[in-house]
Specification:
alpha+beta; Nucleotidyltransferase, domain 5; single chain
Length: about 475
């Protein structure tokens, strides 16, 4: 009888349930979008109950359409949008909506802490910077806004909330990767840090137990019989696993809503002099660290062109528009719609277009959007190299890598070989791998041997690299 893994991939704009066979070949998937809430400028929220419904609906639909019984499922793996945070009571009632990783409402508080000279201690312990991106200041905002007794509430990122709901409140756990993105977790001692908890005024709040990525996270009975939950990782770390980047120096870049580059740095934490994040890559046996650069808007830039600019009905059309652009156009986009991440970290920056003329149209702005993501990637790779990481090639995945034109532009801009994964959804595959290891079915070596690229792209020598320098000049004008 066939056996399967189910990955729950809970993303920023949709939830997916992905079905894999016992050899980790993807069979099919179900996907459901959910609403984005923008209560004020710079604020982004999700309704946790809408997220929960989307997860349940996609898993049930996946199993029903494929005649899968709970006894056919070896285990479930979960991967999730990181940093998005919520608080809930023992009945599972969520206080406020979830505050999304993109949200910038706590920028002023972060600046206050920086003024007090606290950031260096925070970075030493967490590998992170004081930025609204991370979970702790968001949770503090919820507590202050609602003036409630923190001891009666549970703190969690999306993974923890899903585990709680799936196990009907029996399991209150997270993994090391999601914990490492909260500003509350000491990645040197691998535990919650009381001094950090006090810094963010979160004393008394119930924090989840932290485990390895492949572990017993409990089991669910919501889809028939009992199914184990054996693997969890934040989306970018799950992608690192899915891309088979287990050797020090191997680099992956995921192009989804945002873009996230992550370089494996091995069992020793490496710090950055270029404002890259030192973070936990995964813990299956030994703890493994990584350096990460975050670009907040990647695929979401094309959603903006579609939904707000009405350039096209389907994002895939952006590729043909960009190909028709005037090659001599000097239109450049700085996609700082929700601020700038690495290596600048300017939360109050906003999106800007430079170089518009009477001849500029949809085609030129589509090209500028493609290039902007590649230019930001080049910035982060340059930072990695300056930090001593040797980069030979980049393994890429994510929905944007379906775009052949983008992949070629990327390779030409970063002047490196780009290796496209066999699946654009390495995040979900990584969660399935972790579930396989957690259930004792496979090893890390099995996963490593499973990876090979689907397509390779090499730099086009005719691409004008001066365009990157011009873009940098405009960027410096914006943030200077």
């Amino acid at each position: 009888m066939s056996k399967y893994y189910i990955s729950i991939d809970q993303g920023t704009t949709s939830s997916r349930a992905v079905l894999y066979d016992s050899s980790f070949e993807q069979i099919t998937q179900e996907q459901q979008e959910f609403k984005q809430y923008y209560p004020a400028e710079g604020q982004v929220e999700h309704d946790p109950e809408e997220i929960w419904s989307s997860v349940v609906n996609t898993v049930r639909s996946l199993m029903s359409k494929n005649n899968i019984d709970s006894s056919d499922v070896i285990s479930i793996g979960i991967t999730n949008q990181r940093e998005t945070v919520m608080l809930w009571d023992k009945e599972g009632r969520v206080l406020n909506k979830a505050i999304v990783w993109q949200d910038r409402r706590t920028a002023e508080f972060c600046e206050e802490l920086k003024t007090k000279g606290i950031e260096s201690e925070v970075t030493t312990k967490t590998g992170l910077l004081l930025d609204p991106y991370f979970s702790a200041t968001k949770a503090r905002w919820i507590l202050k806004e609602h003036k409630i007794d923190s001891s009666k509430y549970f703190f969690g990122t999306i993974d923890t909330f899903l585990v709680w709901k799936l196990t009907e409140g029996k399991s209150f756990k997270t993994d090391v990767t999601n914990a490492s993105r909260t500003l509350l977790f000491n990645i040197n001692d691998v535990k919650w840090d009381q001094d950090l908890i006090d810094t963010f005024d979160l004393g008394g709040l119930n924090l989840p137990e932290v485990t390895k990525n492949s572990a017993n996270f409990g089991s669910t009975k919501l889809f028939g019989g009992e199914i184990k939950i054996s693997g969890i990782a934040g989306d970018q770390q799950a992608s690192l696993v899915g891309q088979g980047c287990f050797a020090s120096g191997q680099l992956k870049s995921t192009y989804g809503t945002g873009c996230f580059l992550m370089a494996n740095t091995g069992n020793k934490r490496q710090n950055s002099s270029n404002k890259l994040l030192s973070t936990i890559a995964y813990q299956i046996d030994d703890l493994c660290y990584a350096l990460e650069g975050s670009i907040f808007m990647a695929g979401a830039n094309f959603q903006w062109l579609r939904d707000k600019m009405n350039f096209f009905e389907d994002v895939s059309e952006s590729e043909e528009l960009a190909k028709r652009a005037d090659p001599n156009s000097n239109v450049f986009l700085i996609p700082a719609f929700v601020g700038l991440g690495a290596p600048h970290w300017v939360p109050d920056a906003r999106g800007t277009i430079f170089g518009l003329t009477r001849n500029s149209g949809m085609e030129e702005l589509s090209l500028a959007t493609h290039e902007a993501i590649a230019f930001q990637t080049k910035e982060i790779i340059a930072s990695l190299v300056d930090d001593g990481i040797q980069v030979d090639n980049v393994r890429v995945d994510g929905g944007l890598t379906k775009n052949v034109f983008f992949n070629q532009i990327l390779s030409s801009v970063i002047e490196l070989e780009v290796l496209c994964s066999k699946t654009v959804e390495s995040t979900a595959l990584g969660a399935a791998f972790l579930a396989g290891v957690g259930s004792g079915e496979v090893s890390l070596m099995d996963i490593s041997n499973n990876w090979s690229p689907k397509t390779k792209y090499n730099p086009n020598p005719s691409y004008d690299l001066k365009r990157y320098e011009t873009w940098k000049e405009f960027l410096n004008k914006l943030i200077g």
